[in-house]
Design brief:
Helices cover 0% and strands 38% of the residues. The chain contains no helices and eight strands. The strands form two sheets. A four-stranded antiparallel beta sheet has the order 1-8-6-3, with no helix packed on it. A hairpin with a 6-residue loop joins strand 4 (51-56) and strand 5 (63-67). The N and C termini lie far apart (42 Å).
Length: 100
C-alpha cells in the first residue's frame, strides 16, 4: 500500500517467511475441545516433550497438556483460545526427523 501511495505512514518491515523444503514440520492438533492456553511464545525454541500449552475444560477446569513432538522452532501458535478436536494449535519447524 505504501508503494502504491495508499498508505502515507511508515511502512513496516515484512518478515521473510519460513519455508520447509524438506517437509520437517510437526503439526500439533487438539486431541479434545476446550480453551487452549499457551505456555510458550511464538518464535521460541522448543524441545521434544516440552509442554507448549494446555487445553482446559471450561466446566471442570481439568486440563490436557500439549507437548512438542520434536526439537525445533515454534513458528505457528494459535491465538484464538477456543479449540475443537483436531484444531491446529501449533507448528514446529523440526531440527531432526519429526516423530509421529
Amino acid at each position: 500500500m505504501h508503494t502504491l501511495g495508499i498508505w502515507a505512514g511508515e511502512a513496516p518491515q515484512v518478515r521473510t517467511p519460513i519455508v520447509s523444503t524438506d517437509g520437517k514440520v510437526a503439526f500439533l492438533n487438539a486431541p479434545t475441545l476446550g480453551m487452549f492456553v499457551p505456555r510458550v511464545t511464538h518464535w521460541e525454541d522448543v524441545h521434544a516433550g516440552e509442554v507448549i500449552g494446555d487445553i482446559l475444560n471450561p466446566l471442570t477446569g481439568e486440563g490436557t497438556e500439549i507437548a512438542s513432538p520434536c526439537d525445533g522452532v515454534l513458528f505457528t501458535l494459535r491465538e484464538y483460545p477456543l479449540v475443537y478436536e483436531g484444531s491446529l494449535l501449533a507448528r514446529v519447524l523440526a531440527r531432526e526427523e519429526v516423530r509421529a
